[in-house]
Specification:
One of its GO terms (molecular function) is calcium channel activity. This protein is mostly helical. The chain has 25 helices and two strands. 49% of the residues lie in helices and 2% in strands.
């Protein structure tokens, strides 16, 4: 709103009121244009509210000018030019701008169009030109943090008024002005990101006529290489607003291709490749589409093919021949193959959080590229890695099995078996260091999250734990602590479990391994959480029912089931009064290995039997 704060929920969340989509921005008819969230008819002046605005025609106040601009009534502005000249004022003077957000009468008029028109716009521009204030007025922007940088040209484009946008450019509007307020940033919540620039706004709101005019007008052409605060060009902005719906994707494809074609016609020498420009994250539009999972636009860019000979260099797909349903095509794999840093293929394969990732890998040329790499060398490298790991695992297991007993560290004796053991220990440590380093590199590229477990991160985390446990074991061994054995056996168990990682080299075993991981992390994990609560609850109930001595035995001190007198030492079986022992016995009972012998020492056998049955 005008006070620089986020607009009220009912005004700002247009997308939510219209189905959480961008349909309100993609409309082609604007017979009725709702007030913009940065506009209000509530006066923000600091004067006494009991004092009515001066409308006697002798003096012009900001409220009077703003009211006339919002109503589109030129009659109320007659005499304004003379008033400004007599008082040496301009439309950008503090008296005629909103002190809270810097809004001018021109912005007010553009925010209140009726049938796409407001007669006061041209009238105000004429006054500004006669008072030598045209450039300042036409490029005046909001000053508050929320809508900072929005100019009259942005407003005219957002209001979908081609005539006013054309007029503003003719009068000298800055076509590179950037609206970089909080409302226009990505992840703004209640805002709308369009790339800050007027050209990007026109493109993202499906106004090809304004896009074409900004690119070709004889006054000042828009620079397509200009980038916003995030380094995004107009092509990046189109990728960002894509949502994979059919209507949205078709619209963006038309605008995207139209910009490329028009730019190619204007720049015959093609000194600048628009699709090669990277944003602040080092992503081109194609890479950004891959990273954000915009599969519709991503597929279109990869399969873009122009039949026109002049536009053919813009194609990424070239059909060699067609015979009925069969055809052969060549693809431009620049920035796609892994021979380039941060390639599209690497982004999709390693991006565990990318939506539609499996479907994207089925798109040509990614699908053929992956298959070709696997057939040529990747399968052989994978097999070699498996054999090396198997040799490492055999050495690791042998070292753990033939470890020395006693207080570590153990000196190396002058016998062959000790030398072999020492070499095996060194190999085990070096292998653990390698797995640890490799895991850190992977985590640095893809920071681990809980969702990471459901994709590639399951095996990566297991390898990391294996290496970490063994390195802790090595430190304890050198420090002379016998506890190193506990970490050694845990690391060894994980090392054998990690053999399953290499099952992905087989299509059948790989699918089964992934299925088992999902079952463990989803179904089995949920079951264990519920079962643990039930097991502990019923164990506590049974402990409360157990009596160590029959009811007929009364102890002299009155203590139930316990005696503090001096008695001969007796070897006693574990008691069901112990919560740990009871929990273990109930678990055995759950898997069919327990018995009901403890019911002889309970107060209420029926209750204890019910508790046991429930577990």
């Amino acid at each position: 709103m005008d006070n620089g704060q986020p607009p009220p929920r009912e005004e700002s969340n247009k997308g939510q009121e219209e189905g959480n989509s961008l349909d309100w921005l993609l409309r082609k008819d604007n017979a009725e244009i709702k007030p913009a969230p940065m506009d209000t008819n509530v006066l923000m002046s600091r004067q006494d509210p009991d004092v009515a605005p001066n409308t006697d025609g002798k003096a012009f106040t900001r409220e009077r000018v703003f009211n006339a601009a919002s109503q589109g009534d030129i009659a109320q502005l007659h005499g304004l030019l003379d008033y400004l000249r007599v008082n040496n004022k301009r439309l950008t003077s503090p008296e005629f701008t909103d002190e809270v957000n810097g809004k001018t009468a021109l912005l007010k008029a553009l925010l209140n169009l009726k049938d796409g028109k407001n007669d006061t716009v041209e009238f105000l521009l004429d006054i500004a030109e006669k008072t030598e204030d045209l450039e300042n007025l036409i490029n005046a922007s909001y000053k508050d943090p929320y809508y900072k940088g929005q100019t009259a040209l942005h407003t005219a484009i957002e209001r979908r008024s081609f005539d006013h946008a054309k007029l503003l450019v003719q009068k000298g509007a800055d076509v590179q002005a950037k609206a970089n307020g909080k409302f226009f940033q990505r992840d703004a919540g209640t805002g709308f990101y369009f790339g800050e620039l007027p050209l990007s706004l026109a493109a993202c709101t499906n106004q090809p006529n304004i896009v074409s005019f900004l690119m070709e007008n004889p006054y000042r052409r828009a620079d397509l290489t200009d980038r916003d605060s995030q380094g995004n060009t107009v092509l990046h902005s189109l990728v960002v607003i894509a949502d994979n719906t059919t209507e949205n994707t078709d619209m963006i494809e038309r605008i995207y291709d139209g910009i490329l074609i028009q730019h190619s016609k204007l720049e015959k020498e093609r000194k600048v490749q628009l699709e090669a420009i990277e944003n602040n994250q080092g992503l081109t539009p194609l890479k950004l589409a891959a990273k954000q999972g915009k599969i519709g636009l991503f597929k279109h860019i990869l399969h873009r093919e122009f039949s026109d000979e002049e536009m053919r260099p813009l194609s990424r797909k070239f059909t060699e021949w067609v015979y009925g349903p069969v055809h052969s095509s060549l693809y431009d794999i620049s920035s796609i193959d892994t021979d380039e840093e941060n390639s599209v293929l690497e982004i999709v394969v390693c991006g565990s959080e990318i939506p539609n990732r499996p479907e994207m890998l089925q798109i040509e040329p990614l699908h053929s590229l992956l298959n070709d790499k696997w057939d040529r060398f990747a399968s052989k490298l994978f097999l070699m890695n498996f054999l090396v790991y198997l040799m490492y695992l055999i050495i690791f297991t042998t070292v753990a099995f033939y470890r020395k007993e006693g207080q570590p560290p153990f000196p190396v004796e002058d016998v062959p078996i000790d030398y072999l053991r020492c070499v095996g220990e060194i190999i085990s440590v070096l292998g653990a260091l390698w797995f640890f380093y490799k895991a850190i590199i992977i985590f640095k590229r893809n920071p681990p999250k809980f969702s990471f477990l459901y994709t590639d991160g399951f095996s990566d985390i297991l390898f990391f734990l294996q290496a970490t446990l063994f390195l802790i074991c090595a430190v304890l061994y050198v420090s002379g602590r016998r506890e190193y054995i506990a970490f050694l056996v845990c690391s060894l168990a994980l090392a054998w479990i990690n053999v399953l990682y290499y099952s992905r080299g087989s299509k059948q075993l790989g699918m089964y391994n992934v299925m088992m991981q999902r079952m463990i992390l989803v179904d089995l994990l949920h079951f264990l959480c519920v079962y643990s609560v039930l097991l502990f609850g019923f164990s506590a109930a049974i402990v409360a029912l157990i009596e160590d001595h029959p009811p007929g035995n009364k102890l002299g001190n009155g203590t139930r089931g316990r005696s503090f007198g001096l008695e001969p030492f007796k070897c006693q079986k574990p008691s069901y009064n112990d919560i740990k022992f009871t929990t273990l016995e109930l678990f055995k009972f759950t898997i069919g290995m327990g018995d009901l012998e403890f019911t002889d020492h309970v107060q209420y056998k029926e209750v204890s039997t019910s508790c046991s049955s429930c577990t």
